[in-house]
């Protein structure tokens, strides 16, 4: 069953057209990640789904119901914000139970749901503390707990991990993944961190300037990007682009090849002059120039490459992508 | 701030300057207070001396208590000040919330219009105000004063509070909306507590001029039963003789309630409860 359907959704702020004809369908239990560069409209889309902004046109369905006119609290959604947005004057228990109290749930239900959520997130010891007495990671867990207790049909996360340090981000990411497995509820997750997108998503929606560029599973997008933007956006280090004429004379297209698909080979197509080497232990990233084009190669294992050296790089033609001038994929 | 790096000399200089300023500011108050407890002769002989066995006298206070209805004046002043502050804060905060939170046509224009009052002194409109009060039959009532002071305080209140409310995290308000709080609940339960320091600032800024005002009480409410303290104290200041004992005693007593209100509000000025709401 579909949990959420967006049909031709548009959103303008005055003259600024932020979302353009968005069509997305999200299945029950799916983990969907919205990615895209800063300012592309991810948060706006999430807020439109939540009902915090009205869509300028288009239809939003949650389950079977059209919710365009339903207030946020009645849409059956719960949202976790980047800035946590905990109520500063309420303790953790009251932060979590406020929504249920507003719904006039009986006391036992509230208590039981708060207990359940705080057990899931190991927050039992902090229930009587105030937000100012918690660490960043604990605050984010309280924010997630506040969403869980409502038993929503859809969870909305707006960059929930971007205020956390790297180690905490990783453990919270895993926690969110296991939460999704336990609850089986649909989740929509906004991020511009592609590790989060690749590891968490069942389905990734790539946005650019308010337009959906491509929708698909992480591997689909990685292996089969619809255009140059998606190809360049997913994958780290990013895909190399250069004129195909470097390889084949007279070819006007742009060629794209991922850094990990380049390898050292004496018969290689490119003679690249190395400008910088990053030795990561497991991999070696080589940044080099071919003519006036930069190219990054990710060589597996440890290599003795020195700056200034000429490196002969080859690639498997089957792994090369071609794009026309306007950025569309040319197969 | 990193405590370890604060230079003790700087701290001393800073405190020295602050203490000096405090002394200068408190000096007139101090002079009023000591002289209110002295005989008339002693006031003029040695204005800066503390009252001693000879010069001590409560005559000023006795005159004030006997003359006129001092407690009524006092009560009037208190009612007018507290009610005006209440309305300024309530309506000012509500207008500020609307201006900072909602997008509607003419939002900026409305904000500018409301701020215009900061630059135009309300006393320019005294004649018109008096005519309006006469027409509505509000002359010689405390309501006349409360309405005028509310109007006088609103522009600055809206200006300051909307600036502060813009800084309250949108996420927090949105979290409230998703949790099912009404806009009123968001305003009263989430936003107001967070802008409390700003509210206190507005209150302090408005309180003193209202309490001290002589102009509007004299024009709009000079009747015996609506006299405010400042107006009431004028009976002791004559064209030819001024009863300084009584004036100083009345002033000393007038300082007290302002001091109490100030202490209440300034505690709020210092306290910040935003920490931990948002990172
Ligand atoms: N209230 C508003 N009024 C006018 N323009 C807005 C408003 N909110 C957002 N925008 C514009 O809409 C665009 C999309 O903003 P949005 O916050 O959705 O970006 P985002 O994809 O979430 O970016 P980020 O990754 O930086 O969070 C931006 O260009 C922004 O300037
Ligand atoms: Mg955003």
UniProtKB/TrEMBL annotation, chain A:
Similarity comment: Belongs to the ABC transporter superfamily.
GO function term, MF aspect, one: ATP hydrolysis activity
ABC transporter domain boundaries: 4-234
Matching SMART domains: AAA
Signal sequence, start to end: none
EC identifiers of the protein: 3.6.3.19
Keyword Nucleotide-binding tagged: yes
Alphabetically ordered keywords of this record: ATP-binding, Hydrolase, Nucleotide-binding, Transport
A GO term from the CC aspect: maltose transport complex
UniProt keyword Oxidoreductase, yes or no: no
UniProt enzyme class: hydrolase
Protein name: Maltose/maltodextrin import ATP-binding protein MalK
Superkingdom of source: Bacteria
Chain segments annotated as coiled-coil in the UniProt record: none
Pfam families: ABC_tran, TOBE_2
Organism: Pelagimonas phthalicica
UniProtKB/TrEMBL annotation, chain B:
Gene3D superfamilies: MetI-like
Main location: membrane
GO BP, one annotated term: transmembrane transport
Membrane topology term: Multi-pass membrane protein
CDD domains found in the cross-reference section: TM_PBP2
Protein name from the UniProt record: L-arabinose transport system permease protein AraQ
PROSITE patterns linked: ABC_TM1
Localization in the cell: Cell membrane
Organism: Pelagimonas phthalicica
Residues passing through the membrane, by range: 12-34, 78-99, 111-130, 142-165, 186-208, 246-265
InterPro entries assigned: MetI-like, MetI-like_sf
Keywords annotated in UniProt: Cell membrane, Membrane, Transmembrane, Transmembrane helix, Transport
Lineage: Bacteria, Pseudomonadati, Pseudomonadota, Alphaproteobacteria, Rhodobacterales
Keyword Phosphoprotein: no
Pfam family, one: BPD_transp_1
Any one Gene Ontology cellular component term annotated for this protein: plasma membrane
Family from the record: Belongs to the binding-protein-dependent transport system permease family.
Domain (ABC transmembrane type-1): residue spans on this chain: 74-265
């Amino acid at each position: 069953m579909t949990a959420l359907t967006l049909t031709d959704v548009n959103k303008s702020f005055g003259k600024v057209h932020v979302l353009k004809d968005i069509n997305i369908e999200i299945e029950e239990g799916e983990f969907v990640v919205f990615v895209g560069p800063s300012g592309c409209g991810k948060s706006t889309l999430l807020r439109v789904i939540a009902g915090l902004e009205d869509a300028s046109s288009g239809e939003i369905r949650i389950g079977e119901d059209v919710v365009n006119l339903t207030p946020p609290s009645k849409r059956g959604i719960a949202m976790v914000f980047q800035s946590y947005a905990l109520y500063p004057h309420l303790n953790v228990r009251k932060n979590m139970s406020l929504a249920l109290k507003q719904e006039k749930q009986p006391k036992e239900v509230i208590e039981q749901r708060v207990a359940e959520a705080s057990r899931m997130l190991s927050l039992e010891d902090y229930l009587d503390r105030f937000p100012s007495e918690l660490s960043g990671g604990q605050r984010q867990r309280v924010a997630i707990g506040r969403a869980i207790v409502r038993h929503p049909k859809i969870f909305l996360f707006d960059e929930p991990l971007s205020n956390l340090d790297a180690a905490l981000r990783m453990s919270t990411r895993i926690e969110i993944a296991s939460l999704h497995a336990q609850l089986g509820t649909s989740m929509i997750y906004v991020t511009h961190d592609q590790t989060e997108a690749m590891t968490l998503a069942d389905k990734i929606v790539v946005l650019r300037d308010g337009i959906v560029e491509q929708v698909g599973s992480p591997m689909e997008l990685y292996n089969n990007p619809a255009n140059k933007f998606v190809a360049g956006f997913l994958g780290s280090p990013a895909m190399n682009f250069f004129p195909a004429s470097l390889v084949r004379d007279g070819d006007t297209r742009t060629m794209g090849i991922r850094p990990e698909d380049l390898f050292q080979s004496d018969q290689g197509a490119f003679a690249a002059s190395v400008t910088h080497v990053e030795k990561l232990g497991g991999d070696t990233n080589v940044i080099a120039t071919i003519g006036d084009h930069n190219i990054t190669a990710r060589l597996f294992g440890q290599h003795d490459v020195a700056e200034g050296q000429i490196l002969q790089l080859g690639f498997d033609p089957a792994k090369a992508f071609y794009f026309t001038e306007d950025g569309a994929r040319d197969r | 701030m990193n405590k370890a790096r604060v230079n003790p000399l700087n701290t001393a200089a800073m405190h020295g300057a602050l203490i000096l300023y405090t002394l200068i500011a408190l000096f007139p108050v101090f002079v009023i207070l000591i002289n209110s407890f002295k005989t008339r002769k002693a006031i003029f002989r040695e204005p800066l001396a503390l009252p001693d066995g000879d010069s001590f006298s409560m005559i000023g206070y006795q005159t004030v208590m006997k003359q006129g209805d001092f407690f009524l004046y006092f009560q009037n002043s208190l009612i007018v000040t507290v009610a005006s502050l209440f309305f300024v804060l309530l309506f000012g905060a509500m207008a500020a919330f609307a201006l900072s939170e909602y997008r509607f046509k003419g939002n900026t224009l409305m904000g500018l219009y409301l701020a215009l009052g900061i630059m135009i002194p309300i006393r320019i409109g005294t004649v018109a105000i008096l005519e309006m009060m006469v027409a509505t039959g509000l002359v010689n009532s405390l309501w006349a004063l409360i309405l005028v002071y509310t109007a006088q305080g609103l522009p600055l209140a809206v200006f300051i509070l909307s600036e502060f409310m813009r800084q309250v995290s949108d996420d927090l308000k949105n979290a409230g909306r998703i949790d099912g709080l009404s806009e009123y609940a968001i305003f009263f339960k989430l936003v107001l507590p967070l802008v409390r320091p700003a509210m206190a600032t507005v209150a302090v800024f408005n309180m003193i001029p209202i309490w001290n005002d002589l102009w509007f009480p004299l024009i709009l409410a000079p009747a015996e039963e609506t006299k405010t303290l400042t107006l009431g104290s004028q009976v002791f200041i004559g064209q030819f003789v001024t009863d300084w004992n009584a004036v100083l005693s009345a002033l000393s007593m007038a300082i007290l309630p302002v001091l109490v209100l100030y202490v209440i509000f300034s505690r709020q000025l210092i306290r910040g409860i935003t920490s931990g709401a948002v990172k």
